[in-house]
Amino acid sequence: MKKWLRVRDETCRFPGCSHPAVKSDVDHTDDWAGGGRTDSDNLAHLCEPHHRLKHLSQWRVTQEPGGILLWTSPGKRSYRTDPATPMGPPRPQPPVVEPKTRKRPADDTYLVPRHRPTRQPTPPAPDNPPF
Ligand SMILES: [Zn+2]
């Protein structure tokens, strides 16, 4: 997701900033501490000074679908920043599948036949056959 966000954003997403995304922080638009999700539609790159400004000033930001950020300055002016590369959501990561292993049972029961033979042993032939 980090790489995907870097391609989407290319730069810091603060209005007018061109600091490269690769040298920026990934910020939770809705603060993680306040329950914001770690998801592509709640993450955006901010350079360190703008990341600090977002958290320590009256600047406010919301994120629209497609990674569009709507900023409101302390003076109540609105700014919109669009992603450099509009993209659909990243593909979900496939679950990690462990290699198949043959597990033995914890005890020796696997050595005992699961079903007993149904045939009775053949009785011995009589000593004096009838022929
Ligand atoms: Zn910036």
UniProtKB/TrEMBL annotation:
UniProt keywords, alphabetically: Endonuclease, Hydrolase, Nuclease
Gene Ontology molecular functions: endonuclease activity; nucleic acid binding; zinc ion binding
SMART domains in the record: HNHc
Organism: Cryobacterium adonitolivorans
Classification lineage: Bacteria, Bacillati, Actinomycetota, Actinomycetes, Micrococcales
Protein name: HNH endonuclease
InterPro entries attached to this UniProt entry: HNH, HNH_nuc
Region ranges (Disordered): 67-131
Keyword Hydrolase in annotation: yes
Biased composition, class Pro residues, residue ranges: 86-97, 120-131
Domain HNH nuclease: 1-52
Alphabetical list of Gene3D superfamilies matching this protein: 1.10.30.50
